[in-house]
């Protein structure tokens, strides 16, 4: 590793210290020194990358149980940031509170809407607890610790509990243990993008003409050239009734065939954008 490569990288995350975004970032950059920069919202995350307050961003894009975070697709398309990597994190949700508290003491539990959705079945057993949506899992934990809130819990990571001196009242409360979140690594620095050698995965966006079979033709062409579709997501185009923007991820083994596939679908697509060419991400545990 060169001196240039070994410098501390500033990585902006959505949420506070101890958030699952931070855990994912530490796994992805496990051999590098990073500084975590918290952002309350995903829009703020993109602004931090754009304004060079951070070198890179890491953003959740989909969860195996709760589905896609749709607004993040729009933020990605609107920005100049490009995907340079991905990682899949096994999400283990925990009920945490001030030391000495019991589940029977809790009246309210705060967390991110997606975390609440993942744990709904657990809380069906505790009718006395009111679930309240917040901006982030870790920020909820931080507020409980900072204000010493009794009778209040949070759904968050063990890292958040450890960082803020809270106690885990119930571990692994997610309904389905096959609970994974995919995170994208984002950069606006052309040098970061150029460093990606021999990519085997790509994310693209396009919209189609209002003709019968347009999407089918595009997908058939990708299949013909050996592209392995891993994700397709549609989003309505604002101001154009019943027309959709498509976001597609696929993997490939032959980069030359991939380039040919892009050329082949071009006549059928308008506003074809390559959102990132990168390496398939690995799956890690918290």
3D structure, described in words:
This protein has 286 residues and is α/β, with parallel strands linked by helices. It has three domains: 9-90 and 179-195, Periplasmic binding protein-like II (D-Maltodextrin-Binding Protein, domain 2); 94-171, Periplasmic binding protein-like II (D-Maltodextrin-Binding Protein, domain 2, 3-Layer(aba) Sandwich); 201-278, ACT domain (Alpha-Beta Plaits), CATH 3.30.70. Helices cover 28% and strands 35% of the residues. It is built from ten helices and 16 strands. The protein has helices at residues 20-28, 42-50, 70-78, 113-118, 120-123, 137-147, 158-163, 190-194, 214-224, 255-265, and strands at residues 9-14, 34-39, 56-63, 67-68, 82-90, 94-97, 108-111, 130-133, 152-156, 167-171, 180-187, 201-208, 228-236, 244-251, 269-278, 283-285. The strands form three sheets. Strands 1, 2, 3, 4, 5, 11 and 16 form a seven-stranded mixed β-sheet that branches. A five-stranded mixed β-sheet has the order 8-7-9-6-10. α9 (214-224) packs antiparallel against α10 (255-265). The chain is globular.
Element layout with pairings:
Elements: E1 9-14, H1 20-28, E2 34-39, H2 42-50, E3 56-63, E4 67-68, H3 70-78, E5 82-90, E6 94-97, E7 108-111, H4 113-118, H5 120-123, E8 130-133, H6 137-147, E9 152-156, H7 158-163, E10 167-171, E11 180-187, H8 190-194, E12 201-208, H9 214-224, E13 228-236, E14 244-251, H10 255-265, E15 269-278, E16 283-285
Helix pairs in contact: 9-10
